[in-house]
Amino acid sequence: MDHPTPPPPHDSSPAGDPAPRPDAPLTDQLLLTIMQEISRDAVLSLDPQGRITSWNQGAEELLGYPAAEVLGRHFDFMIPDDLKERGEVTRLIEETERKGFLRDYETRRITGQGKEVHVLLTRMRLLDSDGKLLGATAILRDITARKRMEDELVRARTLAGIGEFAARIAHEVKNPLTGISTALSVLRDTLETGHPHGELHDEIQRQIFRLDRIIDDLLTFARHRPVDRQQTDLVNLLTRVLSLVQDSGNLGNVKVIQYLDDEATVYVDPSMMEDVFFNLITNAADALRQEEQGELILAVKPGPRGVAVTITDNGPGIEDEVKDKIFDPFFTTKTRGTGLGLPISRKHIEAHGGWLRVLSAPHKRTTFEIFLPLDAIAASMTDNPVT
Ligand SMILES: Nc1ncnc2c1ncn2[C@@H]1O[C@H](COP(=O)(O)OP(=O)(O)OP(=O)(O)O)[C@@H](O)[C@H]1O
Ligand SMILES: [Mg+2]
Question: Would the pTM count as exceeding 0.70?
Fold first, then answer.
């Protein structure tokens, strides 16, 4: 928080005008009324007990409560619980009383619809002509969009940092791992058939393959790989990946429903798309492991603006708090997961100019939706238009 230097006593303007203003209290109130009328920001006033005494149109819009619902209530109902626990209410009151005002304080508020908004708060003490405390006025400016952009920027920088770091580690680990694997094969060859250590060697080899796969995932995530576009039959690719997962036994007796009738030949990187389909179908298979009547629905829908592919399962669904993190690298809820499947998939799709998103709630179907826009697949349009 930026603590501004306190202004001179109350009879000077907040802008620092040193000239005394004998009519200051009246002007303050008049100013407040005008501000409330014209401001697109939320402008409200409070009595000395912190109860709301006025609430303008901007406040109705930003905070989502009509004036009638809030007049007379203590202002603390808008403050998120975590901030209340950290003493935000007392802090605001004390700081305003001590300095006379509080400027550009970044905080959060809860709207009538239960949403959280980021706001820039300016608060001023209101006194009457005898210097008696009338209460306070507060102006709240919506900075949610700016905060979101800042968070995205920090996230992008963090991801880039993680990527670089991961790539360096992966390079360092990959060579010795190859060495271990080769040495192990040599040792394995010296064992007679049926030797009790044979199984042990095989298990070590399996674990080495697993490590190797994790490192490959890390490198895929960290490296910038140019998109190598080729004419690709998306339906054919999707069914091939489906068979691969089925053959590995991961889908058990899950019922697979396919809406793949449409012709969808597109101009994409087939190996990237294969990674994406593999990750999404494997995730669905993992989610359906405990389900008695598991269903996997695959659909490819060419449309006027591009091709949509959806992969849906009727597994347990995803809680909101988890949903916020599933595209973060290394986030996993699985004991043997790496948490790179979805970030890699999103990266591949975005490299095609498309997007990957999830629709899910607990005990509801989970759908991962891929969209590849027309310009990303444009080269195929001339001979094979997507309608
Ligand atoms: N279809 C789904 N249903 C429920 N949860 C899912 C589904 N797909 C993904 N998730 C959640 O998202 C998390 C991240 O998925 P992601 O594919 O990135 O990593 P992972 O599957 O855990 O590990 P891996 O690196 O092996 O793919 C999963 O651990 C799981 O909690
Ligand atoms: Mg996965």
Answer: no
